[in-house]
Amino acid sequence: MSTAQLIDQFSTAAMNVGSEVIVVDSVAAAAACIAEKIEGFLLLPSFSSGSRFKLKAALKKAGVTVETDNFRSVAAQAEAGMTGVNFAIADTGTLVLESTSEDIRLATTLPSKQFALLDPKKILADGLEAVKPLRQLHQRDPQNYIAYVTGPSRTADIERVLTIGVHGAKELFILLVPGLSDDFLEM
User: Fold this and answer.
1) Which end of the chain is less packed: N or C, by CB atoms within 10 Å?
2) Full set of structural domains in the chain with CATH
3) What's the pLDDT score for residue 12?
């Protein structure tokens, strides 16, 4: 399957579970998009591609208030969190994040909005293709946390009453940024 087909399949599946998929051409464009979608502050944990592309500076230039420290004390008040993504699974619209860092977990579960940066080259067709990079992640660090994020958080009780945002973000924005990172072990 071509990259364009994988992007289409992933975008359709992600939108079907309530995510918003946005294609941008740069980190600066991603920062501008985020600035349009939030008024409060954003949790920005440290991750490789974010550091390499000076994401914090781009967000601040776009007018976003960024918190990079003290997540335990401020995460519950943050409007949004942002992370990179190790890879994604097209047939389900799922993001896969190595989330051993507590800051990554706090940024993806407590704020009501989550922004995820994903290089389109890191979209795999299905769960079978995900086995190899998952093994690599576990070989690198056998005791890591891996998060699978498929749309905004949702749960339902026995009477099938759906509730959004109970165990994570109410809104999930996936920003496709070409050239961000094609390394499946890097966020």
Assistant:
1) N
2) 3-176 (3.40.50.10420)
3) 97
